[in-house]
């Protein structure tokens, strides 16, 4: 376990409240005054807290939610002063000559940055959507999560094409994104996105919390991280996936957590996993091999001029 354990209340977050209770970190969007719009320091706060809890061995599950009395879970980007809030001054200075691989692009979308921070978090992530959601509140603050719980009465909107822009990320949901649709959680176009649809707003977080408690107690932190990574960073063929799976199985099967999984099964009891990513993860993870490499792209903006 790391020696300098973070105090989440002392991080100086202004747009979120992060509270660690046991092994579950709850992050509450704290912009009710602004209808929980995606603005202020929300993007920076979320990126920081997900990167921080990824490295904190105490954290096994992360829940993002809002106060159930707030006007919305997240009502989209704060565009009261136009789209300029999304552009970073440094990237704009570079113009269209800022290069990333072979792509000429200066802008780094903040919603996409948050999506990557959540996707790259090696812990179990849960979105407890206990209010209406629109735009980035539907994409970055829902789609990258491992599990999603939603209030049955929520209005869910993808208004991007009706605001003259495109959604960040990638999806096959043409009926939602190309129509700029607003739907309810039980819509045939979106209902399968949610692990559970909850009748009342105030019950969404408690249901998600109970689910988180069960997972935090009965899953291996290292096995969760390896499994998420196998899903997110597969090989180029079934043969390559077979080699990656095999190596992960060998490493975990030979570990203390692997042994505890067998013993608890034999003894018909709940497991007591003690493995942590900082102590028990193999140097192989993330997997680097001359043939099977975990490909990473640097999306940070690098200045080309003063």
Automatic annotation (TrEMBL):
InterPro entries: ClpP/crotonase-like_dom_sf, ECH/Chromodomain_protein, Enoyl-CoA_hydra/iso, Enoyl-CoA_hydra_C. It comes from the Eukaryota. Gene3D superfamilies: 2-enoyl-CoA Hydratase, Chain A, domain 1 (3.90.226.10), Lyase 2-enoyl-coa Hydratase, Chain A, domain 2 (1.10.12.10). SUPFAM superfamilies: ClpP/crotonase. PANTHER family: ENOYL-COA HYDRATASE_ISOMERASE FAMILY PROTEIN (AFU_ORTHOLOGUE AFUA_1G01890), PTHR43684. Belongs to the enoyl-CoA hydratase/isomerase family. This is Enoyl-CoA hydratase. It comes from Psilocybe cyanescens.
């Amino acid at each position: 376990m790391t020696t300098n354990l973070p105090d989440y209340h002392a991080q100086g977050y202004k747009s979120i409240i992060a509270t660690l209770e046991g092994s579950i970190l709850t992050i509450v969007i704290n912009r009710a005054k602004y209808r929980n719009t995606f603005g202020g320091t929300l993007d920076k706060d979320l990126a920081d807290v997900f990167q921080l809890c990824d490295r904190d061995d105490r954290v096994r599950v992360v829940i993002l939610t809002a106060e159930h009395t707030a006007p919305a879970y997240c009502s989209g980007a704060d565009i009261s002063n136009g789209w300029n809030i999304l552009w970073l001054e440094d990237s704009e200075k570079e113009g269209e000559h800022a290069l990333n691989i072979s792509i000429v692009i200066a802008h780094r979308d903040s919603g996409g940055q948050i999506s990557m921070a959540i996707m790259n978090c090696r812990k179990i992530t849960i979105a407890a959507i206990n209010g209406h959601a629109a735009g980035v509140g539907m994409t970055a603050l829902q789609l990258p999560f491992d599990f999603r719980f939603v209030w049955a009465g929520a209005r869910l909107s993808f208004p991007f094409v009706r605001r003259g822009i495109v959604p960040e990320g990638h999806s096959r949901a043409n009926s939602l994104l190309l129509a700029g649709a607003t739907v309810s959680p039980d819509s045939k176009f979106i209902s399968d996105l949610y692990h559970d649809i909850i009748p009342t707003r105030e019950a969404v977080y408690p249901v998600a919390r109970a689910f988180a408690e069960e997972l935090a107690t009965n899953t291996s932190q290292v096995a969760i991280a390896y499994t998420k990574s196998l899903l997110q960073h597969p090989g180029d063929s079934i043969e390559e996936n077979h080699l990656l799976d095999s190596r992960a199985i060998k490493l975990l099967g030979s570990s203390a957590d692997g042994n505890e999984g067998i013993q608890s099964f034999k003894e018909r009891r709940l497991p007591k996993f003690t493995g942590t990513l900082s102590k028990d993860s193999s140097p192989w993870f993330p997997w680097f091999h001359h043939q099977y490499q975990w490909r990473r792209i640097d999306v940070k903006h690098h200045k080309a001029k003063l």
